[in-house]
Amino acid sequence: MEPSNPNIDRRQFLKTSSSVALFIGASGLLPQLVSCSDQKQMATLARTESLTAWVRLSEDGEMTVYNPAAEMGQGSMTSLPLLFAEEMDADWSRVRVEFAPQEAEIYGGEGWRPGTKLMFTVGSRTTNSYYTVMRKAGAQARHVLLYSAAKHWDVPLNELTTANGVVTHAGSKRQMDYGSLVPLLELPDPLAEIEEGDLKHPKEFQLVGKVIPRTEIPAKVDGSAQFAIDIRLPDMVYGVMERGNLHGATPTLTNESEIRTMDGVLKIVTLPYAIGIIASSLEQALEAKKHLKIDWSTSAASSHNSQEVYEVYEKMASKTKPGKILIQKGDVAAAMKKASKTYTADFRNDYVCHAQMEPLNAVVQVAADLQSADVWVGSQQGPDTKLGVPTILGIPPEKVNVHLQYLGGGFGRRSMNDFVEECTLLAREVAPRPLKLMWTREDDFTYGAFRPLSLQRIEAGTDSAGRLISFSHCVVGDGGNLVASGAANDHYDIPNQLAEWREASNGIRLKHWRAVGHGPNKFAIECTIDEIAHDQGIDPVAFRRKLMSDSPRALATLEKAAELSDWNGVTLPGRAKGVAFVEHGSLGTGICEISIDRDTGVIRVHNFWIALDAGVVVHPDNVRAQMEGGILMGMSSVLKEQITIEKGRVQQKNFNTYELLRMQEIPDTIETYLIDSEMHPEGVGETATPMVACAIANAFLKLTGKPLRHMPFTPDRVLEVLNS
User: Short name of one Pfam family for this protein (predicted)?
Assistant: First the structure.
């Protein structure tokens, strides 16, 4: 930290230090140069002085850039530091990356509301929200280095250039690498403000948009990468919970005395919805859990049957009184009366589990006086970067130190704090011993938080020329934006549009699932468009081409996808292609080629082509990987995955009854074309997944003449449609 003796010269202090953190000030405050490698100390200084440390430099030329986002396989540990290094003109081979302290007011990106900051790795917003933040921070660090070199050489700053971690003065042919500048650093007073116009033009990028290996992949390959589940601390104990499989039910433990005498059991903790067990080992905790005898109350979910509720939803959709208006453009009712032809269809989607690879877990150590805590967790963070721990313990946020770990899959589930809060409640009981809470796979299925079940009713009208003039979309389901998002048709020229949400509540735990409401709602929208085109004998690409006439960027993705897939070419016998357009931050058109085994009802996806406009593409290889992963996850959810509930109880307990896509079922090829753009980057993690259902269903329609309207497209449902 800063030298405690005020008489010590700052430069002399820095000369004796091996590294320095550049704290870039906010709200007009000057930066500080701090010799400090401890993240907790840096967070404390940054919080008290309203400063941000983005990079740590060492005299040997090594530098550490801090990543403010979660890393769950989407590549933030590379893409965000890459933006910083680009503007800093750093030598990428000397860059290391660490997680930033979890301090939203310091390291937060742009929130959903103006003036707010969030550390929240959700909604495909990471690159989008940090694009300018990271670039400005890198440019500011570069400016400090240039200023220091200019002072050292006694030359005008504008005569200096930087490239690949080196400052050069062409006039005197002198050079100095960034590491050599560490003991010479001085701060401009005042520090120059970096405006967007001061940043590089995309055509000047040396790192962004290039083939760059991901920083965390080597550690993930050799096994040295640390996930929360890998954490082992001295004197650590273990916690598990029995939550039942009736959401919202209250437990009454009837054999507490028996459980307390079991080997290793340290404590039993009763929560409103669960019984917690703390034991010396995980094995002992799980063994005790097996022997729990619990009487469960009824709950709001007790009468819920997921496959029967659609009848209720259909009646709700038929009521004349509209729900909450989401989108209103023109006059849908008047346009429908004038329409030459009208179309009505209902689309359904069942509950889906996140099924992330790493089971939910966390480690919390509460101090003996209960006034501070450390947390080790893989989290997608959230509006509260301390993940609910301060509220539970009744302590200030700065007393909680979150050690963010890699995530073994998130998909929205790890943006909930429930498992961290549970861990804290148990850890408080054994303070100061650290406690690891483990959710079993069965816990995650039976007491999961699912993508909502919903029904979408589409009513559309065309004029005498076959032009789509009216489009009404009624969404029925629980979860607010979890079911209501993704209903917009901003890139289709439809003069009269209405989207509304009618709320239903069944007492089931719900959560964001990759692409949120876009999956079910784009499924309904894109399938309706194809059904209209099919009915009118119009090619679905040609039909969309007219709809996109006023949206050139969307149209470019359609044209490119058609080209990639040879849309108008000859298709092998027994196969057909289907198209779908999705906007989820980035713009993308997907086309798939399928075949159907008419005896078994199994759909096989042979090829998938995607054309994507994501604005500036920071890390192309990673974007392609994101699209491929999104397609495969989409296929799994569309063809296989299904949570069913009977009398409020989840029927699937593990992967033996919750099917996932297998390796032998993946497409032969997935081809992604990235459209060159200089626009602000948009998210890509949630663009591919929603296009899968509609593309497959549209290919099925083309091949059979019959629509698929209920996800997932299980073999029995496919056979039912084929035989109808």
Answer: MoCoBD_1
